[in-house]
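Forum: Protein Structure Q&A
Topic: Joint prediction for protein chains with partners

I've read a bunch of threads here and the consensus seems to be that you should model interacting components together rather than docking separate models afterwards. I'd like to see that in practice. Below is the full input, 498 residues plus whatever partners are listed. Could one of the regulars post the assembled result?
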Amino acid sequence: MSAPAHSRSASTPSTPHAGHKGGLPSVYAKLIMAATGAIFAIFVLVHMIGNLKIYMGAEAFNSYAHWLRMAFYPVLPYEGLLWIMRVVLSVCLVAHVYCALLLRRRGATARGRWKRRGLGLDVFAARTMMVTGVVLLLFIVFHILDLTLGMSPAGPDGFQHATHEASYAYSNLVASFNRLPVALFYILAMGCLALHLAHGVVSAVVDFGVGVRPRVFSALAGLGLLFGLVIAIGNITIPVAVLTGVLQ
Amino acid sequence: MKLTIEVWRQEDTTTKGRFVTYQVDDATPEMSLPELLDRLNDQLVTAGEEPIAFDTDCREGICGTCGITVNGVPHGKVPNTPTCRQNLRSYDDGEHLKLEPFRAASFPVVRDLVVDRSALDRVIASGGYVSVDAGTAPDADTRQIPFKVAEQALDFSACIGCGACIAACPNGAAHLFAGALLSHMSTLPQGKPERSKRARGVVATTEEEFGPCSVYAECVEVCPAGIPISAISAVNREAARAAIRRNKDN
Ligand code: FES
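Posted by a regular:
Agreed with the consensus. Here's the joint model:
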């Protein structure tokens, strides 16, 4: 016996339109997220490599920090390169967060009342994008207050601002990480960054419309995780080195 | 086999539904899930109760009507297999089964396990066809399509429109469905003259009816037609291509 015949005529279901009408199309929102995310990914990679310069000693690290301010002078004004990066990254951040919230809301609406539960570990990074994203956002704010602006209580005691002649990035960094909670928050944020990148890389490649075969897709997921871990571990060594007294 | 079955019962779209627990004592391992529901309905009719409404037609994985959610997974435990081809042998004697309709805001419940999947039809109506006059059957060799291209188009055209990808998606997105449609039609010469126009229509309707894709890739685990993951990137690709081509149809 199969389904009773009266089930269809009992009521004409309303046409739901669970998506959205008008506004920024989700496909464009995803392309914006992929493009801005890719810029962040390149930025954190370069930032991490720059950070590792700390192992070459105070002088080398300070002169690198100083060079960042003086780069391309006088073609660019003092701190020109830094300001270009600050503006680009800020615009990217606003766009990335705006699109994330928009897509999140649309996804929740289209899913409806009955959420998908009990998904495996393979989608852990994907499902926690919002959580890791919020931690990263808080971290960015703190990180700027701490080591860019040196504003207490975020910044360490005795923070020295850079001058046109010299930078004190080394002593500022060591002073900051000598505070255990700051070092721990940094490590937590880097863990979140690894997870965020693990899914972000995969998502960006697909959003850019690259048709990957199933095998390549799995490889890509591994690659994303590896990329995230390399950046996170590279950075995490620094507070660990400060806390263990390797960097003083 | 003795099974405890929790089934979603709902009068119609507007009324509230609830789970009702039943017991089936004479299930056999070779029974499919629809056959289990048949058995349960026999029991219910004999007892003078209202049988459970559920969709099935071909019962061989072709028509795509039978999809239900089993223990939280669209279609059931076995990956890439439609509900009608899921057998009880993948469950243990005495196991507890929870049967619900496909869950997504775009699939309102019609009754019990039956959902309205007309949102998928609206996507197809907005571009999932070739509108040039096909005429009489052409001579076999007038249009030469390389074997690999034909195979690729066939892989994407395998979609049976069951809606499991949407039910599996935490965002209720239909990118696997829409991407399969766009991929197969843009691969073949017959579909090329309207490639951009189709992409505009299909993507716009998909946005109206379903959620955005976050690349969870849950869809490819349940798809009974084995549509590959590359389908989902086709949605963004075809949308971007159509946007660049402005007012062109192809
Ligand atoms: S009944 Fe046709 S696919 Fe299951």
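The longest helix of chain B spans residues 195-209.
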